[in-house]
Amino acid sequence: MPKKKDPRLERAGVSGYNKPKRTPNHKTKSHIVVAKEGDKILDTHLGSGSIAIACHNRKFDLDAWEIDEEYYNNAVERLDTHKSQLTMF
Question: Of the residues 30, 37, 55, 89, which has the maximum number of CB atoms within 10 A of its CB?
């Protein structure tokens, strides 16, 4: 008897061991694809802040950590710059 698939993964386009389908707005880690607006995302390695920008764009609640202060400051600056830009849509 085959295992029942997780409906969240089916909605995200995951089948078997395939990665989620890429969408025009999907430019970051695949775990974000199965989240919905208002979900809390945990990023334990903030790095350059790509996940922070993606979470901001998709209205996710982000908790993020970065051990390197320089990376953290750069990520915060990058996110602030992104937030200050006007959007056309």
Answer: 55
Interval 56-74: pLDDT, tens: 988 999 999 999 999 999 9
Is 46 a domain residue? yes
Q: Do residues 60 and 28 lie in contact, with contact meaning Cβ atoms separated by under 8 Å?
A: no
pTM score: 0.60
- Token pair, residue 37, equals 């607006």
Q: Smallest Cα–Cα separation from 61: which of 37, 44, 85?
A: 37
- CATH number for the domain spanning 42: value is 3.40.50.150
41 within a domain of the structure (yes/no) = yes
